[in-house]
Amino acid sequence: MKALRILILVVLAGFSGTAARAELLAPQPAVEKFHATLLDIMQWAKALGYQGRYDTVKPVVDAIFDLPGMAEVAAGPPWRNLSDDQKKQFIDVFSRFTYATYAYRFDGYDGERFETIGQQNGRNNTVLVSTRMVRPKDEPVMLNYLFHQSEDGSRVIDIFLKGAFSELATRRSEYAAIIQHDGFPTLVDKLEEKITDYANGKK
After folding, report:
1. Any idea what DSSP says for residue 176?
2. What topology does CATH give the domain 2-199?
3. Ramachandran bin of 13, using left for φ above 0, alpha for ψ from -120 to 50, beta for the remaining angles
4. What's CA 143's distance to the chain center, in Å?
5. Taking every pair of C-alpha atoms in the chain, what is the biggest distance, in angstroms?
6. Cβ–Cβ < 8 Å for 117, 132
7. Rounded distance, CA 85 to CA 103, Å?
């Protein structure tokens, strides 16, 4: 019976990610749906296991994140010199790394909850949704999501940790340096290695 409940949860999460794709394009509801999914995988973390968490979060990330756009920003200036095949390869590994990161990090539940503070319009047709994760045993963590207009509607293009630190800016600095000094294949190898480490429970 327990295994059946787990299967139902995973299947429903998959349907909600695809069927609700259009619904998720409004910034604030998109973030709230994403946070609801994170709470699901946190609360069911042990029963789902790593792969179950990965499979549950993937369709929702696909629905609200502009992963190709984020990959381009993360690669930095070297992106312009990559071939079309290399760009496709990097978008693929960057996307899988994103799913893996959430599956790895959100691996347990200790009474956490998410609160939406509000949203505000920014320059260049962007919207910033401000939220925080409330932790009973620690300080709240501010999580701000920056949306921009894409071909499919508004999608997340960056996340600001602690309200101010751009996740993409951090990756851009790291990834661009690796490409410039060690080459594009090395960056791909490092991300593949990290994905494997996350799947195996390693930091």
Report:
1. H
2. Nuclear Transport Factor 2; Chain: A, (3.10.450)
3. alpha
4. 12
5. 53
6. yes
7. 27
User: Which uninterrupted H or E stretch holds 52?
Assistant: helix 45-64
What's the Cα-to-Cα distance from 74 to each of 7, 64, 85, 118, 148, rounded to whole Å? 35, 18, 17, 26, 16
Domain boundaries, the chain: 2-199
The total of other beta-carbon atoms located within 10 Å of residue 154's CB is: 20
Q: What's the whole-model pTM score?
A: 0.87
Q: Which amino acid is at 101?
A: T
pLDDT tens for each residue of 75-93? 999 999 999 999 999 999 9
- Closest to 75 measured CA to CA, from 190, 168, 158, 156: 168
Please, what is the Cα angle at 100 between 89 and 120, to 5 degrees? 90
pLDDT in tens, 28-63: 999 999 999 999 999 999 999 999 999 999 999 999
